[in-house]
Amino acid sequence: MIRTRVLILTLATALMAPLPALAHKVISSVFPSGDAIEGEVGFSNGDMAVDLQIDVFNEAGEKLGEARTDADGFFIYTPTTPVTHIFRGDLGAGHVAEMTMPADEVADIMGVAAEATPTVAPTADTSATGLSQDAEAEIAKMLRRELRPLRQEITALKNETNLQSILGGIGYIVGLFGFGFYIAARRQIGEQK
Amino acid sequence: MHIVDGALSNPVVIGGAVAAVGGIAMGLRNLPLERIPAAGVLSASFFVASLIHVPIGPSSVHLILNGLAGLVLGWAAFPALFVGLLLQAVFFGFGGLTVLGVNAVNIALPAVLVGLAFRPMVARGSPMQGAIWGGIGGGLAIAATTLAVALSLALTGDEFLLAAKLVFFAHIPVMVIEALLTGAAVMLARRVKPELFINTPAGGLS
């Protein structure tokens, strides 16, 4: 019994130590930004990947191009073909960030239909809003800037480890080993008979 | 310490999975009834320990406690650590399901080796001596794990020395902390439950 108590003590010490909610995990995302694709790469503890090479591939694995992240972990890539884009960044030591942007979204950015040749000129359809193209571009840029912290917060929230999952995990472990104990005990009782 | 999905080539992933299955089978065979609760508690400790992050410079690393698991459980540390890893992958996305085998081998194999090598020393002499050996074992387990991680990356294509240096140096503080923690745990266990580290016919371990 004392042995169990010692081990529980070990566990309790581990539990009581300061528990930062952030895990050391790669987070990354890509989103349309005007006529380009913007993306960010970083660790879930808030460190961004600075000056990281991002390789861009299509679905077949052929390299389309590359981009580099800036000091805030952001990178911009201007697509040239409306196909599915896969962005890959190797952060080293087993950390790999992979983001995908589907073909129709890329086509949307380029202002062409998916699978069409990129020679078609983007149609200027701004008359409905009554704004000039410049003003619309300005508003779009502003919105992107305003939404950026929000987007980061959402990503961070999604990756947060909460107490419920920790307790849930411990519950699973207890249950699993309890089940193992049951099986082993049954076998031993069966042998004794 | 956890390698994520997509970082390794297929042969490495498959090799790791096969080795992990072997290790788990070996571990389950060496898990007597009396040790099952201990295995469960150590599995839970490992599961929680990975959530405690030690900030080091620009990055942060977390505790692993595989040395302690190895010292107490021997081969049985393999299934215990595997369960912890599986749940970490499912709940928190640490590592991933496809690389589970590789991660299990990287973390559990050093634990088992340290357990087999240091267990006699830990059980011998005064509790203080046992604690010192336990501490060395705890630190060594982490060092061996970093080398295993670097090796897995090297087999995929990363340059071994570079990867090894990166992972190894980042984890030096963890080695120190784990050595102290394992030492303290061994000291406590030797004082209140000395037979924990001694092979007995009933609770015998290989």
Automatic annotation (TrEMBL), chain A:
It comes from Thalassovita mediterranea. Keywords: Membrane, Signal, Transmembrane, Transmembrane helix. This is Nickel uptake substrate-specific transmembrane region. Residues 1-23 form the signal peptide. The chain crosses the membrane at residues 166-185.
Automatic annotation (TrEMBL), chain B:
The keyword Cell membrane applies. InterPro entries: CbiM/NikMN. Pfam families: CbiM. The chain crosses the membrane at residues 12-30, 36-56, 68-91, 97-118, 130-154, 166-189. It comes from Thalassovita mediterranea. It is a multi-pass membrane protein. Its main location: membrane. It is found in: Cell membrane. Keywords: Cell membrane, Membrane, Transmembrane, Transmembrane helix, Transport. This is Energy-coupling factor transporter probable substrate-capture protein NikMN. The gene is nikMN. PANTHER family: METAL TRANSPORT PROTEIN HI_1621-RELATED. The lineage of its organism: Bacteria, Pseudomonadati, Pseudomonadota, Alphaproteobacteria, Rhodobacterales. One of its GO terms (biological process) is transition metal ion transport. GO terms for cellular component: plasma membrane.
